[in-house]
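Data card: per-record layout.
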Amino acid sequence: MKKRGTSREEKTEMVHIPHESEWMTFVVNEDFIGERIDVFLSIISDDVSTRSRAQNLIINHKVLVNENFVAKNYKMRLGDVVAVAADAPVVYTAEPEAIPLDIVYEDKDIIVINKQKGLVVHPAVGNHTGTLVNALLHHCGDSLSGIGGEMRPGIVHRLDKDTSGLMVAAKNDRAHASLSKQLASRSMSRIYEAVCYGGFKTESFTIDKSIGRHPIDRKKMAVIIDPAKKARNAVTHVTVLEGLGAFSHISASLETGRTHQIRVHLTSMGHPILGDALYGPQKPLFKSQGQVLHAKTLKLVHPTTEEAMVFDSDLPEYFADILRKLRAKYIR
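The structure for this 332-residue chain is written out next.
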């Protein structure tokens, strides 16, 4: 680990730099570009949890960015590697685990998974085991792309823990690069289905609202109207499939892929997703364990054959059960 440059007055200060095995590391993704380091740590790490705690660690030389000490107001950049000194030597590595996978398609380049509700995609603070990555390592062995790093092998895109549905993972770096390019160019298509609160006056519409970090609750995302504040363009196309009294069954097609995009966009319209504890009402009208949101259709171009591929999944039982109950309650 490198040590920052010191002034003449600082040269007498003895700084203890922990052994490398004592550091927790995080890689900055696009959601945190321009965020202060203390805010970033309070959001990303359950062990830090508050800005004051983060600032204390920074002041006491227990935080490094790209192997250098930084000030507490340092602004994050894409790909920054942030290391935080843990209270005790803890090293986390993703290990293979025999977790059942619903494999929709697989070849030497890609694997398409129908992720079950409640499964975290990759290891992180608070979820070091029992993730999709652990399951993929058990199933694929060494045949996973390394571009995402040791904790995210093969992972090209993510689904929230309580969002079920289709995901594609890369089995080599070439495939990973191709799929990432398709995501960036918006040529990879993802269509979701959800149950949300309220009814709609039109059968289809587009939500075109920029999304950024919530100004107060930094663990949430929000629609950002002020052009002076950091936000990224986000577009969601919505089609109403069925009216269900106080709820609606909808389809949502992503033109962009921002964190919590469908959940935030629907909430901004006054139609939060049923079961969404983060963005929905504190006292829900209808009980559901987690948001009723399923990634139903995935369209992509195969990295090697260049074949246009379309994958579709049935609605999972939890989703179908919610629809049955709502129809019985509201449809006479």
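Known properties of this structure: The longest helix spans residues 317-330. The CA atoms of residues 26 and 82 lie 5 Å apart.

See the next section for split statistics.
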